[in-house]
Design goal:
Pathway: Pyrimidine metabolism; UMP biosynthesis via de novo pathway; UMP from orotate: step 1/2. This protein is an alpha/beta fold and 212 residues long. The chain has one domain: Rossmann fold (3-Layer(aba) Sandwich). Helices cover 32% and strands 25% of the residues. It contains 7 helices and 8 strands; from the N terminus they run αββααβαβββαββαα. Strands 5-4-3-6-7-8 form a 6-stranded mixed beta sheet, with helices on both faces. A hairpin with a 5-residue loop joins strand 1 and strand 2. The radius of gyration is 18 Å and the shape is globular.
Length: 212
């Protein structure tokens, strides 16, 4: 884990000492900047190999990820699972999210649903904060009669448990429990610490607060 943490730190994927707003809406002083990882294909490739090695390659038929960054992870992880197995190929597909109205749940398009039924599936995600995107993806796979073997993530920063994602075993390359707060309980908001608008959802948070 120390070596993996070093990779994250080396490319600036762990940023501290600011007021961040996560996609989940929670606030923290630490941000895991997955985008800093994605610009380094060799690092992402090596991390995905580690994720692939957590499974018996012959037992995984399909790797599924939620959009957007997860697409890269699903491709590389499936690639290494295929390299490790004696025969056959592990496929990679991704789940998309509804854009408007009430339907913001994940769904399969592009005919990807036909690769799920009766298959052994691993779900991959970059950062787990609440685990909600991973949980929705797992539920989607189950609705299409896929069998979930496990959930793999680059980083579990929210202390997400298997129970929180439907009883699925979680394999995270690093566990980084961070103290996070709701907007109402956020000490940085209380003390007037400026919101970081370069990383995370700070810009959208401020726009929404201004329009409220």
């Amino acid at each position: 884990m120390t070596e993996i943490m070093h990779l994250f730190e080396q490319v600036g994927a762990i940023v501290m000492g600011s007021h961040f707003v996560y996609s989940s809406g929670r606030h923290s002083s630490v941000y895991v900047n997955k985008d800093a990882l994605y610009v380094h294909p060799t690092i992402i490739s090596s991390l995905c190999r580690l994720m692939a090695e957590q499974y018996e390659p012959e037992t995984v038929d399909v790797v599924v990820a939620p959009v957007l960054g997860g697409i890269v992870l699903s491709q590389w992880t499936a690639y290494y699972l295929t390299q490790l197995r004696k025969q056959g190929e592990t496929l990679a597909v991704f789940a998309e999210k509804g854009a408007d109205g009430v339907d913001k749940q994940f769904f399969f398009s592009r005919g990807y649903d036909k690769y799920i039924a009766g298959k052994n599936v691993v779900v991959v995600e970059d950062i787990l904060t609440t685990g909600n995107s991973a949980k929705q993806t797992i539920e989607l796979v189950r609705r299409h009669n896929g069998h979930i073997i496990g959930l793999s993530a680059l980083c579990n920063r929210g202390g997400v448990t298997p129970e929180a994602v439907g009883g699925v075993p979680i394999h995270a390359l690093i566990e980084l429990p961070l103290e996070t707060y709701t907007e109402e309980a956020c000490p940085f908001c209380r003390d007037g610490v400026p919101v970081n608008t370069e990383l995370g959802k700070g810009r959208a948070f401020l726009a929404k607060r201004k329009g409220a």
